[in-house]
């Protein structure tokens, strides 16, 4: 017959975050009292706060890792490739146009005759 023994104690005490806060406040109060006339009380309070902080941080570290934080990042968007426009053939040089003044002017009849027929 196998006998299993649990190493967990029944008395768990204050939660770890509460113990850390209490130890920090105790150490801060001890430092504040060390400055005043109550130097002896401040010295003891600071020592108790520091030792409590060591115990609290040890408990915090021994409590095991938390669940990993899974950051869900959106997948990267693929960059669209720019399509190159089709190459444009250079335009052929246009033939020079005849003078526009000559094409819009009415021809004058020779010898000063009028074109009315009168």
Secondary-structure blueprint of this entry?
Blueprint: H1 16-35, H2 39-62, H3 100-104
Helix pairs in contact: 1-2
Give the radius of gyration: 49 Å
Topology pattern, helix = H, strand = E: HHH
Proportion of residues in helical segments:
40-55%
Helix/strand structural class: mainly alpha
Major sheet details: none
Name the beta content range.
under 5%
Mean pLDDT: 76
Oligomer: single chain
Q: Please state the overall shape, judged from the principal axes of the Cα atoms.
A: elongated
- Helical element count? 3
Distance between the termini: 146 Å
Give the total of beta strands: 0
Pick out the low-confidence regions: none
Give a structural overview.
The chain is mostly helical. The protein contains 3 helices and no strands. It has a domain at 16-61. The protein has helices at residues 16-35, 39-62, 100-104. The radius of gyration is 49 Å and the shape is elongated.
Salient structural properties:
118 residues; mainly alpha; elongated
Provide a short characterization of the protein structure.
By secondary structure, this protein is mostly helical.
């Amino acid at each position: 017959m196998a006998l299993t023994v649990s190493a967990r104690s029944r008395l768990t005490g204050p939660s770890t975050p509460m113990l850390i806060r209490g130890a920090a406040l105790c150490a801060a109060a001890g430092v504040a009292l060390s400055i005043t006339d109550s130097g002896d009380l401040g010295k003891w309070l600071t020592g108790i706060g520091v030792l409590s902080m060591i115990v609290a941080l040890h408990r915090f570290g021994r409590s095991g890792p938390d669940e990993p934080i899974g950051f869900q990042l959106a997948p990267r968007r693929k960059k669209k490739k720019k399509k190159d426009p089709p190459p444009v053939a250079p335009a052929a040089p246009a033939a020079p146009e005849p003078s526009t003044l000559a094409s819009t002017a009415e021809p004058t009849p020779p010898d000063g005759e009028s074109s009315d027929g009168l």
